[in-house]
Structures are given as structure tokens and as C-alpha cells.
Amino acid sequence: EDLEAKGVKIACILMEPIFTFQGMTLAEPVYMQELVKYIHQLGALVIVDEVQGGLGRMGTTWGHEHLGINPDILTCGKPLSNGYPFAVVATSPRLVNPMRVITDQIQKECINP
Fold first, then answer.
1. How far apart are CA 75 and CA 92, in angstroms?
2. Where are the beta strands (DSSP E) in the chain?
3. Residues pairing with 49 in the sheet
4. Rounded to the nearest 10 degrees, how much is the dihedral formed by the CA atoms of 109, 88, 27, 63?
């Protein structure tokens, strides 16, 4: 609220579904769901980093599934390639589809929701 009063707009929130460096602490699902609602009300994006919690390490494919949230953008890296430098950024159709309309330079094969 203080930021809004100063005219500062929030663009996004970047989070991990499990806080691995803080002792494997899972965030409270209800808190995270309310946080995501608030961020979306601001018109900002929710980005989830699944490098530590993704690909089955928490019992589900993606760690954010435990929180009951759907991120706008998901990032994942090392687990996909056994430690080699490789990364993935996945996004929702809501973000991808406008890009398809405004540019013809992005090939259809490069943007698949």
C-alpha cells in the first residue's frame, strides 16, 4: 500500500514453492493463494521458480501444485538436464496469445502454450 501511494507499481512476484535454503519449508497454501489473488488484482504477474521443487521432487510434477496456484510464468533448469546449463521458461496462453497477434517474427514453433 505504501508503494501504491508513492506511485510505484509492482510488475511481478517471483517465488519458490518450497524454501529449500531455509530448511525445506513449504509455504502455507491459503497464504500463497491469497497472495496470488492480490498480485493479480494489481495487474502483476506470478512467476514460480521450480528449479528446486519441480519435476517430482515434492511428490507432484510441479511444486506449486501443493499450493493450489497457477503461475503466469514457470522457470525450471538444472533438473531437466542433469546439471548441464539448460533452462525452460513456460508461460500461460494469456501471455503468449497477444504476442502472436502483435508480431509475425515469432514463429509458431517457438511459442507453444
1. 12
2. 12-15, 18-19, 25-26, 45-49, 73-76, 88-91
3. 75
4. 70
Q: Over the range 74-91, which residues count as b (16 or more CB within 10 Å of their CB) and which as e?
A: bbbbebeeeeeeeeeebb
Pairing of strands 25-26, 12-15: unpaired
At which residue does the C-alpha cell 538436464 appear? Answer: 81
Return the closest-CA partner of residue 97 out of 111, 78, 87. 111
Residue 15 backbone phi and psi in degrees, to 5: -140, 160
Q: CA distances (Å), 24 to each of 13, 14, 63, in order?
A: 20, 18, 12
Q: What is the reported pTM?
A: 0.74
DSSP letters along 76-109, please?
E-GGGTTTSS--EEEE-HHHHHHHHHH-SSS-GG
For 40-75, the pLDDT digits (tens) are: 998 999 998 887 777 767 777 777 888 889 999 988
Query: Strand, coil or helix: what is 30?
Result: helix
